[in-house]
Amino acid sequence: MSVEVRAPMPGKIVKILVNVGDLVGEDDELLILEAMKMENPIFSDGEGTVKEVKVKEGDAVKAEEVLLIIG
Amino acid sequence: MVEAIINGLSGLTTGFQHLFIDWRNVIMIGVGGVLLWLGIKKNCEPLLLLPIGFGCILVNIPLSEVMMQDGFLKVLYDAGIDTELFPLLIFVGIGAMTDFGPLLSRPSMFLLGAAGQFGIFLTLILALWLGFPMLDAVAIGVIGACDGPTAIYVTSKYAPHLLGAVSVAAYSYMALVPIIQPPIMKALTTEKERTTVMRYAERPVSKTTRILFPIVITILGGLIAPKGLPLLGTIMLGNLMRESGVVSRLTKASENEIANVVTLFLGLCIGATMSGPAFLKGQTLLVLALGFVAICLDTVCGVTFGKLMRLATGGKVNPLIGAAGISAFPMAARVVQKEGLKYNKRNHLLMHAMGANAGGQVGSVIAAAVMLSVLAGMGLI
After folding, report:
1. Strand order across the A3-6 sheet
2. Residues of B in contact with A64 (CB under 8 A)
3. What is the rounded average pLDDT of the residues B169-178?
4. Is B348 in contact with A40 (Cβ distance < 8 A)?
5. Which pTM was predicted?
């Protein structure tokens, strides 16, 4: 079963810390989202392999937008 | 000839001779040094602590004429503090910098911004109980606004002899918000409350609403509390310029050049009020202690109100966001975000806290305005 990691708030992706194929565990840091001039870490919701990264560094994202998929 | 040279050279030692005549000046030069260290080395509000610290050193050097009649800091003080002009100009800049969007998209957050001001009134009562005269107690209570310019405005108008202590307390505690708030937030909440996830869904705010907000708040606030109109009017003027989008030159000047120049002058003037004999009194320590209590009480009231909102919404609200209902913007909201993530890695409270924080910014100004108007109604000012 795949898990979608979504943006908790609008902002800008400043750093992507994983690549497609990486194994990640629950609570691992996946990317950094800048909102209101604050860098916020986005953590993994579950264990698995990163199947798809849907954003790139510098992208502006909306709240609830899918950032990456873990399978 | 030799005697003239010796006399001339002895003139160079006069300052050293006077240095230890009043030990309070020596201590205050040290205090100025500590403020500089906090600003430069610890990055605590450096834009203010650096000029305050330097102003403090300048005024405590023996035979210094900077605060004498026609001294350059006295000229600045008379022009900008005595007239309350500097804090008001800073407010135009703050209004120009502040995005009230998170508050306008969730107006209920304004309640937290109001709750976070109760510390002002509780501290006012405490100061009165400790024997401070009414106007001094008002100035001390306003430290609880967690808002430097508001504290300076009120104090310079009604208790100018406390200006140094109140300003230092207001700005120091604002810088210490990330240290002061977290233990209180933890003590007042259960683990279940702290780990409550609040999802954020974007709600767009129309341009008309953004433009009407500063106009309506100014008129309504001015009618309710005319004594605070200069405070409210200047912050809302800055915000109207920002949201209208038609005077970007003025907006940029307000948030950059004007705010920067006035911040320098304001900091120097505050430092200049910190001469040893005027500052080193038991009363100053009491003001600093009460200011600390005020900010703790703000946090207690904000978080407690957050718990009430949680009750009213059937557990949907994380009460930690109540701590952001103070004016220290955006620092208090960032503290809430960090604390929320500490207890639950999927709990991003930032946007909710920003709403409460923006509410706290307006709330602190309104609270000060209301307090002044009530006192005016009672015939005390």
Report:
1. A3-6, A66-70, A48-53, A23-24
2. 201
3. 84
4. yes
5. 0.85
